[in-house]
Structure of AAA family ATPase:
Amino acid sequence: MAGPGDPDPHAVPQPRAGSGYERPARQEGEPGPATGRSAVPERSPQPPATGYPTGGQDDPHRRPAPSPRPHPSAPASPPPTGRPSTPARATASVTPVSGAPAASDGAPSTGSSSPSPGPRPDTPAPGAGGYGEEAGVDAYVSRETPSREEDDPPLAMEAMRAVQILNPSGEVTMPRPARPRIMCVANQKGGVGKTTTTVNLAVALALHGNRVLVVDLDPQGNASTGLNVPHHAGIPDVYDCLIDNVPLAEVAQAVEGIPNLWCVPATIDLAGAEIELVSVVARESRLARAIAAHPEKFDYVFIDCPPSLGLLTVNALVAAQEVLIPIQCEYYALEGLNQLINNINLVKQHLNPTLDVSTILLTMYDRRTRLADAVEQDVRNHFGDKVLQAVIPRNVRVSEAPSYGQSVMTYDPGSRGATSYFEAAQEIAERGVKLGGAA
Ligand SMILES: Nc1ncnc2c1ncn2[C@@H]1O[C@H](COP(=O)(O)OP(=O)(O)O)[C@@H](O)[C@H]1O
Ligand SMILES: [Mg+2]
């Protein structure tokens, strides 16, 4: 194990004096690690909430479609402010970074430079065909529209609309990999975008024909919430797979409205797993076994890790072939990364020799700060081509989407958040083909 003083080639650079880290601020949106939580509450045996996915939309096991379920914390009606008709620009006191992504919170989410209100610029041109042609521009009505909720099209239509807006010409493909790719989304810091990245990459890939499974391995169940998958106490969840050897097939739920996407939810029961795992046999490889025993073949399995380096994260690292590390473009972004890399190396040495940190994604990039640019430069210098070209900007649509039980891909497909995650998913798919060919 490389100690802090060793010249570890994987050592992560620490913030340098005078490197542009001028604003020692960060936003942490998440409570602390899941470890140390109290024991698991008494569980009553429940039948599986859904059958297991055996196919796409026609799967008879798909659970009946519930109506969109706003998060309890969500407002009862559509967002009160919605997309501003006049873009909120950066104040004069901040310096734009050249070449940075072109959107920030409050900016129009369509990516258009035109500030004028009116039909969304991302509306497919007449004659583009598909859903847009049939439904006309009304289908692209802004979420400011008060009647938006009443007029909500079925969720499947939302998915079609998202594809139409994100990929209007249809020329972007996300080829399926020849072999399933199991990706662990890890970073022991909370609030860096692990869950947001998991949910949005999974939806983007599923919308483009990949069969995707999301395993929610965080007792907070944020990925389950973001995908609108029931995960209240008593729902069969990943805890049952880890502790009671229940097959993944019995707990995976089809994600409503997104073909080819399933989720193994996390309930609060998972909070006790970190402690209970200590005394079970093969405690580090419970998840690996559950995924390996899985009869289904997925193209992608994304494992959303908790913000800790405990046994749950170790299980994810043992089950995965690849690690995807989201790095928030903030002052403390690189702190603690050494610890994560050291843990990954330990798992590699002892439990999973083929594990590879394949992908780094920069999240919450704020083009108004030189700090974000400095973090990006440091991360690119250190990790080289592991860092995706796509960078996820800080974008208010991304943070609003989960309260509607949606990814930003379907919530506001024209937003910078959605287009950036779309680009990131495309890069990941292309890399998968380079690694091992297409299906
Ligand atoms: N690109 C983004 N722009 C704005 N808010 C974001 C963005 N990515 C994530 N967030 C918000 O930041 C918070 C933390 O993100 P989350 O994905 O839950 O992090 P983690 O899973 O690493 O703890 C959430 O409230 C989320 O909505
Ligand atoms: Mg999370």
In short: The radius of gyration is 21 Å. Residues 29-30, 190-196, 222, 307, 363-364, 392, 394-395, 398-399, 402, 417 surround adenosine-5'-diphosphate (ligand 1) (CB under 6 Å).
